[in-house]
Amino acid sequence: MIDYVTPATVASVDTKARKVVTKDKDEFTYDFLSLIPPNKGAPFIQELGLSEPGDSFAQVNPLTFRSRKFETIYAVGDAARTPYGKTASAAGVTAKICAQEVARSLGAPARPPIPVETGCYPYVSPDEALGLKVAYSVSVNGDEVKLESRVTADNRASSGNVRDRKSWEQGFLREMFGA
User: Fold this and answer.
1) Does position 33 have pLDDT exceeding 80, yes or no?
2) CA 120 to CA 132: how far, in whole Å?
3) 106-118 as b/e: b if 16+ CB within 10 A
4) CA–CA separation, 50 vs 36, rounded Å?
5) Cα separation of 162 and 158, whole Å?
6) Dist CA 51 CA 42 (whole Å)
C-alpha cells in the first residue's frame, strides 16, 4: 500500500522505528520512505526582481508565461509561479505555449491556444503504475487568475498505466528530439 501525504512539514524521522512525525504531530510509519522537499525557484529569480517578496518563483501570466514585471522576459517550469504542477508533463506543454508566445511577440501569426493537460504515472513495481491526469482551464483578468481543473486519478496499480506512461514518454521524446 502506498500513502501519499501532502503538504506536510516533517519535524522528525526515526529511521530505527521507521516513523515520521510532522510539525502538526501527525505520525506515519513506513517500510519505504520518499521525502520530496518543497520546490523553489533559483536565487537569481529574486535577485532580478522577477518574484514577489517571500516567493522564489517568477510572477508570470499563466497563459503566456510572460513576466508580470518585465515584458521581454518569459519563465516556465521550475522558474515560474503558475497554477500547473511542477512535472515533466507540465513543463513540456507550458514550454510549447511559451515558445508560441515568444514567436508571436516576434511577429509570427497567432495560433490556437494549446490546452494544458498533464499526466503523471508513478511506478509502484516494474510492471505497474498509478495514474493521474489533469486538464486545466485558466483565465486571467488583470492580476486575477481563475483556475479550473479536471482531475482523473487511477489509484489502482496497473499495467495499463505503464502503457500510458510509455506512450507519453515516447511522444514527449518524439516532440523534443524527433526520435
Assistant:
1) yes
2) 5
3) eeeeeeeeeebeb
4) 25
5) 7
6) 11
- CA–CA distance, 97 with 80 (Å, rounded to integer): 13
Strand positions, DSSP E, the chain: 10-14, 19-22, 27-29, 58-59, 80-81, 116-120, 123-125, 128-141, 144-158
How big is the chain by its Cα radius of gyration, in Å? Answer: 19
Split at pLDDT 50, 70, 90, the class of 179 is low
| Chain segment 94-141, per-residue pLDDT in tens | 999 999 999 999 999 999 889 999 999 999 999 999 999 999 998 888
Question: What does the alpha-carbon distance between residue 130 and residue 178 come to, in Å, rounded to a whole number?
Answer: 28
Tens-place pLDDT, residues 136-172: 998 888 778 888 999 999 989 999 999 999 999 999 8
Q: Are 120 and 89 in contact (CB under 8 A)?
A: yes
